[in-house]
Amino acid sequence: MFERTINFIIFRIACPALNTTRTQRSNWHFDTQAVDHNTNVTLTCAAGYWWQPPSLSGHPNTTKTVNCGSDGNWTPALGDCVPISMNSLRELFDIVSCS
């Protein structure tokens, strides 16, 4: 009997680096430099910023965990943190002014 061996080659693509230029423009920072396949990275908004939209419970999201997929893309998409404004707080919490 003949025995056959089948070899598979798996190509994994590293995700784009999370560099300081990106973080300064997007108003978030991260906890690791790793960009390898299946790496989770926590992105944290700078003070006074949050991810939009807010969480389903109505609370502002100031952190987001992204994963480097085997296709070389971050999931969910990186996006930008946006400034927390009084208007967004009014909409989020139904704040009415007293006059």
UniProtKB/TrEMBL annotation:
Q: Where is the Sushi domain?
A: 13-83
What InterPro entries would the database entry show?
A: Sushi/SCR/CCP_sf, Sushi_SCR_CCP_dom
Q: Does the keyword Disulfide bond apply?
A: yes
The record's annotation in PROSITE patterns points to:
SUSHI (PS50923)
> What does the UniProt keyword field contain?
Disulfide bond, Sushi
Q: Which domain of life is it from?
A: Eukaryota
Keyword Chaperone annotated? no
Protein name (Swiss-Prot/TrEMBL): Sushi domain-containing protein
Species of origin reads Dreissena polymorpha (Zebra mussel)
The taxonomic lineage of its organism, from the top, reads:
Eukaryota, Metazoa, Spiralia, Lophotrochozoa, Mollusca
